[in-house]
Specification:
homotetramer; 313 residues; alpha+beta; 2,3-Dihydroxybiphenyl 1,2-Dioxygenase, domain 1; 10-stranded mixed sheet; 18 strands; 15% helix; GlyoxalaseI/FosfomycinResist (chains A, B, C, D); Manganese-dependent 2,3-dihydroxybiphenyl 1,2-dioxygenase (chains A, B, C, D); biphenyl-2,3-diol 1,2-dioxygenase activity (chains A, B, C, D)
Chain lengths: 313, 313, 313, 313
């Protein structure tokens, strides 16, 4: 079994904290759980951890880290020891350094991806006056903006996809769900999971790596029609989606991508994918000839985008 | 041809103007166009007239009037003259009495329904800073609350349905679309139109009449899924729908009813009905044995409701 | 007032009647009302006339005619007389020549568009064993294929858009809803209506005219999600949409275009547009700078397409 | 970790195999994988195992068994040994006895629920000519009927809910997600999972037990709008839903229940629930005072129903 249970949160550095809050709160519709002058913590109405997004004031827009929650408390140190054995530099983060969270470890993968592992986390209920109608939600549905149900997955670019995929399997217990192959048969992109989701992590070939390699962070909505509503909401706010609405062949998700204008970080509104309950899912490879988008708008190439990925499900 | 073109607006008296504004603005999602201390004018993002709802501060919750717009300017006085010939008392309302509107006439039908007819109206664009993405809308979609596209129809109860139906046809040019018959074959409720909508006006048998006889005002949303979203939004605001989500057989509409807690006025969120383009639509009668709801939640009987109608499409 | 009430039906010539029936019946989901070896008559479950589509076996794929129903029986001859006064050649079609239909007149517009006008038509109920659950439908919903509610509009290309628009207004009583202007300010495309729909007829600039100028025939579905379902259904049948799913700015419709592989005739699956109830709608012009698609997939250019239109709402 | 991975299939006895096939194939829209005169095997387009539903010709309508797939091949015998240690009678089913399946064990829970555990199963691709557009599906979407994505969960009634819940946890590794408590605080119904789904198994208090205690089998559709479409499709086929469309508080699912008229077995069309990725989900208890349906149609009491359950999510 894998030691990792799920993608727990994503911490993003932004040069304009107020601007990014406008996007993630007012437009995307996350709830602010806690904030001070340098960091804001947010979550969706179906997220239960203290936060699933942290926005950190910084000189430059970069991803700070992706936080992976382990299955058991002892998995954090056990995985840390294995990483150190492999020569990976591991940083200890004391409890409370990140609000609502216990002791954590941070490290970079061979592809440079900035990861955190942790287990202890506060599951704070909504404050009085903002309690949701249902006990199984942490916030109120449809209160503002897109109003996604929960954080879904993260997608990075990195120059060496096959190597990163293999390391993710061996060290972190990821399984491969699907792969897009290039014309030469090499792995162009891979979709990997530790949970039952179609994927928790995707990696695609790109010229950058590490904290500059974030392609997008995805948030789940219950219905394809909610993705269409998000498109109209974004456009009314002057934001132009750079991919979708459409439906990927890989992951089968109905998708829409837009960027926070204050930071350039891209988010995906995501619905309608599959879950994997079988223990013996075989990776599905799509050759360049086979690959197609199921339907909908193709990615827009943007001159000011640091990355360029063909199949960013 | 009928002299009336459409239901233009509905003016509602409320004992709690601030409370009703909270419902019609924050929860239902209409835009406030203009207001002072005693009256507020609102419209939906797809409404073009100055307002489609007026909320008037008053001692008691009642409908003030339903405003029917005529096809041509001269239709107002011509129809007024015909009404006076029939002995109907007609009140002249000077231009500007109702904001954004020209001279109008007010009268009561034989069933006591408080009507206004008018033609001249200001089609005010959205103020700078609130302009919509599309030139064919007057406001921004999905900016807050349910966010319906437009006012759709009005539904009254009155003791004598068949007589009111006949008068509405003869004097005002309404056509009957559908009728619900009681066990004795009498007309229990009728759905009538001057426009291409499935109905602009519905009348159902009930013990009250006139300005106390408002059953509901309906607002159109583009999709059935938008009706479901409205149900969740209402419940998060502590409002319990008293009918739906469901789909009527009569009108084929997907429906949801809820009441403004400040005034008790009921609104319907409405989608998916038919339009009638043929000039020779024959009224469709449903006997008590034939009548059914297509699917979904039946009406809830509420002890504090002044009216009780079996088939309030 | 206009003499025309609505677009009643579209008659299409196909070189492969069985193949086209497979598309319009099995895939699009229309019901076959009547057929013989050379012609098949179909309609949607919310259409009441004898047929809204006629498929005619022919050497070549062309539109045979667009059938416009008049408001009153006497409008047919009155309009015929006006056309002859203007020098238009008018052909008399006897009752029964087209199944289920009374006497009609056929003529070509100055742009060559092949029109028919008629009023008498049989409103045949569904045969026993295929009766729908609701009396206000002519067939069963969701029985097969896309299952649209009704025929919506027709779209032609023709070289002289402004001239055709003016003639359609003056002779046939169309009103202009919206127009797309080219960079030189000339009318590139126009959307026109005789009914309350956003448009019954669209004309766009193209190199061909007349019966070769059909761009598409549109069918209405109740929800945007039904358009997405249609995309998946088409792809499972091996058909690739050549535009959409997306949402036009002009008409605000959620759209999807695909071609019958047997004939090349293009159909649009269409939802979510507006209706016009006001008698004084002012045409909305979109300059080339202003024009945008609201969201979604752009048109695909196809080398084998006889026409090429930039804004085919 | 649990030994069970998921609900793999449900085998149902029916006194009218052809009639039940009409329901599960033509109306529900499952694909027939294999059949002979006494048994038919079906699956949904997103199911990969040989079958997820088996229909078995029999004298009486009962559930034959719920088939639970284990995580690893060796889990079958290991769990069988533990059951025998506890005095449970375990029946060995040879490979191939159920088409497409390896050796299995069958037993009854203390509440009498007829279970099968197995691991080996054939993942048969669709036959040529029925291949889906996407490699990650086993069949074509929207080909006929409701067309659900996959089997979701099973719901039983049994007299002793708390005892069955405890045994399911201890012996089979189920976790409790939510519970409905009666007025006396006792467990009225429990929703349990071995996978990441909101629940794989639900048990509610009822007077019957064992193979007569099936409340329903649920099938997942991607969107709430697909549930509404299913309601209309059922009604067109003369079937009246006995609960929904609506949305449960417990599980948050959009739901619709209807019964196969040939057997009386009830199916649920189910969408929009949550998944649980956290390893430390705490069971959520709803008291009788707290419990509510989120929105929509309440259950219909049917005189001919063998069971009567208040909260059958």
């Amino acid at each position: 079994m894998t030691a990792l249970a799920r993608l727990g949160h994503v911490a993003l550095r932004t040069p304009d904290l107020e601007g990014s809050l406008h996007f993630f709160d007012d437009i995307l519709g996350l709830d602010v759980v806690e904030r001070d002058e340098t960091v804001a913590y947010l979550r969706a109405w179906g997220d239960f951890e203290h936060h699933t997004v942290a926005l950190i004031s910084a000189d430059e827009a970069r991803i700070d880290h992706a936080g992976w929650r382990t299955r058991a408390p002892e998995d954090v140190d056990a995985l840390g020891a294995r990483l150190r054995e492999q020569g990976v530099e591991v940083e200890e983060v004391p409890a409370g350094h990140e609000a609502g969270q216990g002791a954590a470890l941070r490290f970079r993968t061979p592809g440079g991806l900035p990861y955190e592992i942790y287990h202890e986390v506060e599951k704070r209920p909504a404050p009085a006056g903002r309690r949701p109608a249902l006990k199984t939600n942490s916030g109120r549905v449809w209160s503002h903006g897109v109003s996604p149900r929960r954080l879904d997955h993260i997608n990075f670019v990195t120059p060496e996809v096959a190597a990163e995929e293999a390391w993710s399997q061996q060290m972190l217990g990821f399984s491969t769900r699907e792969r897009a192959l290039g014309a030469d048969g090499s792995v162009h992109a891979a979709w990997l999971a530790v949970s039952a989701l179609a994927h928790d992590l995707a990696i695609g070939r790109g010229p950058v790596r590490g904290s500059r390699g974030l392609h997008h962070v995805a948030f789940y909505v219950d219905n394809a029609s909610d993705v269409l509503r998000a498109a109209e909401l974004f456009i009314e706010h002057g934001l132009e989606p750079d991919h979708g609405p459409g439906r990927h062949a890989i992951s089968q998700a109905v998708c829409l991508y837009v960027r926070d204008p204050a930071s350039g970080h891209r988010v995906e509104i995501y619905s309608g994918s599959y879950v994997v309950l079988d223990p013996d899912w075989e990776p599905v490879d799509w050759t360049a000839e086979e690959y197609r988008q199921w339907w909908g708008a193709q990615p827009v190439r943007q001159a000011d985008s640091p990355i360029d990925v063909v199949t960013p499900c």
